[in-house]
Amino acid sequence: MLHPNTRDITEEQRLAELEALGIADIGPSASLDRICDLARHVFAVPFAYISILDRDTQWPKAQCGVSLDALPRRETLCDHAIRSDEVLVVPDTLKDERFSSSPLVAGDPRIRFYAGAPLLAAPGVRLGALCVADTIPREFSQDRVGILLRLAEAAMAELRRHRADVQAVAEREELKQINTRTADREDELLKQRTLLSHAETISTSGSWEVDRANGLLTWSDGMYRLLGAEPDAGHDPAELFRRSVIPEDLHLLEDGLLAVSEGRPFSHEIRVIDARGRVRHLSSRGGPIQNVAGRLSRMVGILCDVSESKAIEAALRDSEDHHRHAVELSPQIPWIADGDGLITEAGPRWVELTGMTQAATLGHGWRDALHPDDLAPTTEKWVHALKERTPLDTEYRVRLLSGSFRWFRAYAAPRLAPDGSVKRWYGSLENIHDRKLAEETLRQSVAFARSVLDGSPDFVAVLDLEGRVRSLGWQARQRLGPEVATRVLGRHWANGWPKSHRVVVEQAIASARAGVGHRFSCHCPERDGADAWWDVSVDPVRDADGKTTHILAISRDVSDQERMRLEVEAARAQLAEVLESTTDNVIVVDRNFHVTYMNPQAKAFVGGTSTLEVGGCLWDAYPEYLAANQRFEAVLQRGEAAKFEMFASRAGIWLEIHAFPNGNGGISLFFRDITEARQAREEIVHLAHHDPLTGLSNRLSFSGVLEDALARQNHGLAVLLLDLDLFKEVNDTLGHPVGDVILQRVAARLRETVGDAGHLARLGGDEFAVAMTAQDAEAVLALGERMVACLEPPFDIDGQVIRISASVGVSIAAAGCNSADELFKASDIALYRAKAVGGGSVCLFEEAMLERIRFRQAIKHDLGLALERGELHLVYQPLLDLGSNRVSGFEALLRWDHEDRGTVSPAEFIPIAEEKGLIVPIGNWVLETACQEAAGWPEASSVAVNVSAVQFRSDSLPLMVAGALNRSGLLPHRLELEITESVLLHDSEHNMAILHALKKLGVRIVLDDFGTGFSSLSYLRLFPFDKLKLDRCFVSDIGRSVSSEAIIRATGEMGRALSMVTTAEGVETMEQLEWLRANGWAQVQGYLVGRPSKVPSTSIPDIGTATVAESV
User: Fold this and answer.
1) Is residue 574 within 8 Å of 555, Cβ to Cβ?
2) GGDEF domain spans which residues (predicted)?
3) What is the pLDDT of residue 5?
4) Where are the domains of the chain?
């Protein structure tokens, strides 16, 4: 089932949807467990589970029959199930490379079958999956896919409901917490007011508030204390403050009052004269306060006495001026930071060097001058010093005014207060650029020397003049291992060699010490004991004055070269032995084709046909083979190997020859007898172009013949396609071995009939074809008639007489036709028409047939949209009970009103629906609709619904019927399911299982169209059908055919004997009705009783009171 609005979303969008729904943290749910249990029983699997997938993990939310923990998402099967809105079905996980290595497959619970339906929050939004699984491989029908999708929808709905319950509980808890916090906030507000009063007293400050609604000004007691007045003296606060401000600062007061009236913040310092006549410096700040609606509700402000700090500031300015003159003479750059690490002052040389202003440097601004690579580590060290209150010592690069960077070293130490807190940091910057350059030069020199040592693929050791090891290259350390490499340092280099070679090693050291290099080769075992062969050079290392200061020993492992040398020698010996023992004939010739080598096999071969020997010329011995010389010359000129086959006329055999250029300018020839292989190859080619069963040309060969014929002539070429009628039923009934014999006999008759008139082939199955040149259409049709006629005599297969008929479709290429596919298509259409008229006939292609095919294709396309467009509807034909003379129920019949074509006959679209596979969804819709509408009818009435063969083959049919009954509320005994005899043709065990499952639901089972199918009467004995319906073809013969009347009587008696209700279809006359009543039939249906019509459930009359006359 596809969701028509499926859209692709990114993984980030999917995760956002998952977080928005908030279902990832949902705990256990009994409802989800019930859905899992239902899925496990519906599909008869050992376990089922529901999982949610976040970015990296699968979280099981419910499971039955299995115990899964959270799993990495990449190891799960559900990760694949959420990649599409469709159900993922894996019949056998071990045969699917996506899952065969999954821990759930390779380990417990050892899943072999898996089906997963995505949990869709919306089309394309897949949050998890409902999964069913088994430990054995299984198939999973399309009906089951639909059921699993519906269960997944139910699971998704339950997840949403469960989350909503959890959220409701959380919201109630949150409301409770809000109420608690509100009460706590009121208590806290009272405490803050008390604390504010104490703080104003201690800090010599006061606060004020203006209510914007009424303009009321409120002062704290601290405001009165600042002006030296008593709070309870009856002063007007605004007038008292205005009188206290000195005249020069009245404009500041006016600015503050204007800001209060406009509702904007302000800040300034203002001077007042208190009640004792003292001038006091007050810092005044005010700002607006908004209510919960975001509107200005009041202005609040604070005044602080800063008179003392003003005096301190004056003294500090004098001290700073003294300090500035002192530090300007220092080559270092002093700086000061506050206790939080914010720079408050930097020496003037900083400004000169960097070009930054003092203002830009303060706070964190100094970091803008740092090199980008040094910013993070410098900041980290500064933060660590601030946190631990320990001195800072770090180095970083600073960008100068010129744009270049220079290295500086920063020192800083904290000045601590008595309580241990930091009051300030005092630091300095020292220019260390020249020292850093010297260090970098030295570092690069050491790194270069180390890279030379470590970059060498050889075993490199640096020795002092005494021969002791001072350093080892990377390769040497790797081969010795860390422990041995550490022990070697400081030890004499000769001690690492076998005693038998130490004299040579010491001589090499002495030579290098004297300034002369030395080289030698010897073997020395590896650390693991494996023997190795070394090529060693020992050379002096000189300083700038040419004096030897060290010795460089380079040992190259040449073990591979030594082994290769030995292997080459061994290979040469082995090659000679192989050439002597190979079954191929080997001859080696030089540039002039004189033989330089022959192995024993070649000597034996040429000995029987010539006198060729080593030293002789190949062409002197075999002049008749000079034609091959061109191939050999090409090998010599291009230096490339050649392979070809040649017939050796003297020996009478075919040879396969391989010629290779050799290193001596000649050719090595390998040749063998391939006579039998060629014969086998030719047989394979024959099999590739012929049908192994009949010996006729196969489809590949026939297509080639047809293409060649069209290339020679593009008109007058005819193609006849022959297909055996009902051969599948014969094959299924008698078995494939008998079917193969029949095909062989058919091929023999056709071969004799066609003769030289055309090219006969078996295309596959029971389809044969003939290509022939047509003189005229009559000749082609005559051949087709003869082909059909030759198959009319019965076949005798092991005493069984079998009759086979055939249909033939014919097409003749018109002028301009050059496509074999067009001819095939036209013949196939003609064949389809020949079979449609009943088989056993020959039909020539006409353009009208193509139009018919196009019509069927259009119907097939539109039928897929009919349900969606609402073009299908049901009509109901009544059934008359002959005993009570009343209508007992209705048969639901499907109708299609096409928006363009009008009413389309069921005979047109039902076969197409079955062919395209649409009969299942359409049949399910018919069942649902009929049950819903019949549920509103009087309880005595029943409704009959036809079940197609395709629906009946589905294991989910009983489940679908049960669902329709449950959703509609229709009682099971009021539903009749009509099944034709053709439904019961195959798979008897499956048929019986489905019939009994439906019977167990309580519905009534009707055997429809009795007398027209091919089923065995044993079904009437094995299964208790509730009703038997006689086909209308028998009823139409009442009064005209004695044999038909005899069959009707016998059928009625058999039905009554088996306790089945007998119903006759197609009753159109009162004579037919009365005859059936007289012969004991229980029910009739047909135009006499009533034509099919729409019967809304709300307008159905009391059917129990409807008489024949009323119905008619």
Assistant:
1) no
2) 715-847
3) 41
4) 11-172, 204-309, 328-431, 455-562, 582-680, 689-845, 873-893+909-1111
Amino acid at residue number 903? T
Q: What is the pLDDT of residue 1102?
A: 42
Give the single-character DSSP code of 493: G
The string of pLDDT tens digits covering residues 223-247 is: 788 777 777 667 777 777 788 888 8
Joined tokens for residue 785? 């008639």
Tokens encoding 562: 């030594």
Residue type at position 182? T
Q: Does domain 873-893+909-1111 have CATH number 3.20.20.450?
A: yes
Burial class of residue 210, CB neighbours in 10 A (0-12, 13-18, 19+): buried
**Residue 271 Ramachandran class (φ > 0 left, ψ -120 to 50 alpha, else beta):** beta
715-757 pLDDT tens trace? 678 899 999 988 887 887 788 888 899 999 999 999 999 999 8
Measured CA to CA, the distance from residue 697 to residue 759 in angstroms comes to 8
- Per-residue pLDDT tens digits for 767-777: 999 998 877 88
Question: What number of residues does the chain have?
Answer: 1112
In the sheet with 518-523, reading across from the earlier edge strand, the strands are 469-472, 459-463, 548-557, 533-542, 518-523
What are the b/e assignments for 219-231, b being 16+ CB within 10 Å? bbebbbbbbebee
Q: Would you state the pLDDT for residue 1038?
A: 92
**Residues 974, 970: Cα–Cα separation, whole Å:** 7
- Helices 237-244 and 250-262 cross at an angle (nearest 10°) of 150
The CATH architecture one would assign to domain 455-562 is 2-Layer Sandwich (3.30)
User: Helices 957-968 and 919-934, interaxial angle, to 10°?
Assistant: 30
Bridge-based pairing state of the strands 71-72 and 88-90: unpaired
- Judged by average pLDDT, the poorest of 566-575, 612-621, 658-667 is 566-575
CATH code of domain 582-680: 3.30.450.20
Q: Taking 80 as the threshold, does the pLDDT of residue 543 lie above it?
A: yes
Share in percent of the chain as helix, strand, coil (round to 5): 45, 25, 30
CATH superfamily of 328-431: PAS domain (3.30.450.20)
Q: Please report the pLDDT score of residue 1112 as a whole number.
A: 28
Record the tokens describing residue 26, joined without a space: 């949902």
- Give the closest residue to 739 by CA, choosing from 750, 760, 724: 724
Cα of 687 vs its chain's centroid, Å: 43
Class of domain 11-172: alpha beta
Q: Is the dihedral of CA 38, 42, 46, 51 positive or negative?
A: negative
Each residue's pLDDT tens digit, 14-69: 888 888 777 777 777 788 888 898 888 888 899 999 999 988 998 898 999 888 88
- Three-class SS string for 1019-1042? HHHHCCCCEEEECHHHHCCCCCCH
- pLDDT at position 1103 is 38
User: Are both 11-172 and 582-680 of the same fold?
Assistant: yes
- CA dist 968 and 367 (Å) reads 78
Chain-wide mean pLDDT for the chain?
Answer: 83
Q: Domain 204-309 classified CATH 3.30.450.20?
A: yes
Lowest-pLDDT choice from 351-355, 774-778, 812-816: 812-816
DSSP lists the bridge partners of residue 1085 as 879, 1065
Fold of 689-845: Alpha-Beta Plaits (3.30.70)
